[in-house]
UniProtKB/TrEMBL annotation:
The keyword Membrane is annotated on this UniProt entry: no
Pfam families, A to Z: DHquinase_II
Entry protein name: 3-dehydroquinate dehydratase
Binding site for substrate: N74, H80, D87, L101, S102, R111
A biological process term (GO) from this entry: quinate catabolic process
Species this chain originates from: Candidatus Magasanikbacteria bacterium RIFOXYD2_FULL_41_14
GO molecular function list: 3-dehydroquinate dehydratase activity
Subunit structure and binding partners: Homododecamer.
Active-site feature positions: Y23, H100
Keywords assigned: Amino-acid biosynthesis, Aromatic amino acid biosynthesis, Lyase
Enzyme Commission number(s) from the entry: 4.2.1.10
Keyword Transferase set for record: no
Free-text function comment from the UniProt entry: Catalyzes a trans-dehydration via an enolate intermediate.
Length: 146
């Protein structure tokens, strides 16, 4: 099955312990299980990766993008300042959807800016875990027309 890279940035390994009002109660393992199940409906396979380190995320994208057809990424706080992650996503040349569990547009001013979104075909924010299902749908639609 075609592979979608599901990438999580810093602190997302702590889901389930982080502020539930912003990030919900599911753990990262719960989230990955759910997205993996949802992906099967689109005949897509999920390959997940989480790191607290910007370089490790870039290494993963560089190593895996050739064998994948799309990316779903929640870059965590790197969203707001990582130009190198932006560039890695552009270089990967894959349709990419950025997902945020919380609504970044209604939070602190610095959080409302995404430097990675311009490398993406869409950004989904504030829908919790459901945002990942929307991202899958968006990618599946995009892949169907390509
Ligand atoms: C987040 C939003 C970011 O601002 C924050 O730094 C995160 C999670 C979200 O999913 O809502 O770590 O990407």
């Amino acid at each position: 099955m075609p592979i979608i890279l599901l990438i999580h940035g810093p602190n997302l390994n702590k889901l389930g312990e982080r502020a539930a009002a912003h990030y919900g109660v599911l753990t990262l393992a719960d989230l990955e299980t759910k997205v993996t199940e949802d992906a099967k409906r689109f005949s897509l396979e999920i390959k997940s990766f989480q790191s607290n380190h910007e370089g490790a995320l870039i290494d993963f994208i560089q190593a895996e993008s050739k064998s994948a057809v799309g990316i779903i990424i929640n870059p965590g706080a790197l969203t707001h300042y990582s130009y190198s992650l932006h560039d890695a996503l552009v270089d990967a040349g894959l349709p990419t959807v950025e997902v945020h569990l919380s609504d970044i547009k209604s939070r602190e001013e610095w959080r409302q800016i995404s430097v990675t979104a311009p490398a993406c075909i869409g950004q989904i924010s504030g829908k919790g875990v459901a945002g990942y299902a929307d991202a899958l749908k968006l990618l599946a639609e995009r892949l169907a027309v390509d």
